[in-house]
Amino acid sequence: MLQGKTAVVTGSTSGIGLGIAEALAREGCHVALNSYTDTDEDQAIAARLSADHGIKAHYIQADMGKPGDCMRLVETAAADLGPVQILVNNAGIQHVEKIEAFPPEKWDAIIAINLSSSFHTIRAAVPGLKAAGWGRIINIASTHGLHASPFKSAYVAAKHGLVGLTKTVALELAEFGATCNAICPGYVKTPLVEGQIADQMEAHGLDREAVIRNVMLERQPTKQFAEIDQLAALAVFLCSDAAAQMTGQPVSVDGGWVAL
């Protein structure tokens, strides 16, 4: 069903973004990978996906903090791979600090990359989705799009905004055969989180298991990380015909966090 469709996945050279890009490629999608860098390693990831799955995969450098780059990403993907019918907004950054000490430049960067970039890519993609009469937009939000935590003012604000944007876009596309949903993960086992575990062990003087259960997963009732493959499988489902009547939904994958 997804065979031959073109997907753009922002922030997709590692972690959740790469997992989703790989899952879509496995389903036969042509995939535009993205990050702000432009290295041989970036190009190699695209070459590997092409070879492994028999699809076209291109790496497109674009800084998601810049509106012009966001639009260029969608336009280049369409020119290189065909009309964009699947858009996954995954790019994001984080900074943790009490609000009175939060650097304004960090606030601006987080809002730009975690929220505004999705507006710009969606704005660029929607005319093509309407013309095709079919489309899927998936915004990678967070449990922090539904709940707040201290010291994460910009991240929480951006992710709440992203959930609101998701609902608005869903309503605007409802009669055009296109859906827009948000995936809201709790803590996910990514290379970035693995590095944070080591930092927390040192900071708290605790062993690995104690840090995972009592610090990082304190508010995640299952006391288990979500897995990248689980999020990727959900993204594929949201692109399927089975999810055609799911739109405007923040779908939580957080081990029960929002149930608290």
What does this structure look like?
With 260 residues, the chain is α/β, with parallel strands linked by helices. The chain has helices at 15-26, 40-53, 67-81, 104-132, 153-173, 191-204, 208-216, 228-239, and strands at residues 6-9, 30-35, 57-61, 84-89, 135-140, 178-185, 250-253. Strands 3-2-1-4-5-6-7 form a 7-stranded parallel sheet, with helices on both faces. Strand 5 (135-140), helix 5 (153-173) and strand 6 form a beta-alpha-beta unit. Helix 1 (15-26) packs across helix 8 (228-239) and helix 3 (67-81) runs parallel beside helix 4 (104-132). It starts with 5 loop residues before the first strand and ends in a 7-residue tail after the last strand. The mean pLDDT is 96.
In short:
By secondary structure, the chain is of the alpha/beta class.
The value of Rg in angstroms is 18 Å
Under the CATH scheme, which architecture of the largest domain would be assigned?
3-Layer(aba) Sandwich
Structural class: alpha/beta
Biggest sheet features: 7 strands, parallel
Give the H and E element order. Answer: EHEHEHEHEHEHHHE
**How many DSSP H or I helices?**
8
How far the N terminus sits from the C terminus, by CA atoms, comes to 37 Å
Low-confidence stretches: none
Shape: globular
What percentage of residues falls in helices of 4 or more residues? 40-55%
CATH superfamily of the largest domain: NAD(P)-binding Rossmann-like Domain
Number of strands: 7
CATH class of the largest domain: Alpha Beta
Strand content: 15-25%
Summed up, the domain count is 2
- Overall mean confidence score, pLDDT: 96
Q: According to CATH, what is the topology of the largest domain?
A: Rossmann fold
**How are the strands ordered across the major sheet?**
3-2-1-4-5-6-7
